[in-house]
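Technical note accompanying the year-one report. For the benefit of new consortium partners, we illustrate the data format agreed upon in the data management plan: each record pairs a sequence with a structure-token string. No post-processing was applied to the example shown here.
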Amino acid sequence: MFGSWPRSIDEFNQAVGAHYTLPPGVKTIQVIQGNDEVFVLRLPAKNQVEESNELAAKGKYDLPPIIDILANKPAGNTVQDFFHARVADYTMRQCR
């Protein structure tokens, strides 16, 4: 279904750069795919949680644009579009 996973920032940017920009300071990429026998629990960086919490406390926490697809289901989007948005949100989620 999918090709090989990106092994570098350049490969990642070539694959999804038009749709997602990595946060400043990211130097490497690590792809982890779980399976039915291994539960992968990924926690965001502590500083990102703290930063987002401070922004939220000030009423300045902005949701990523993909939330519009998840929350509002815009006209013309299919069930598959909604599914892809959920996968993208889960996959790319940072706490910012």
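Partners are asked to follow this layout when depositing records. The chain has one domain: 9-92.
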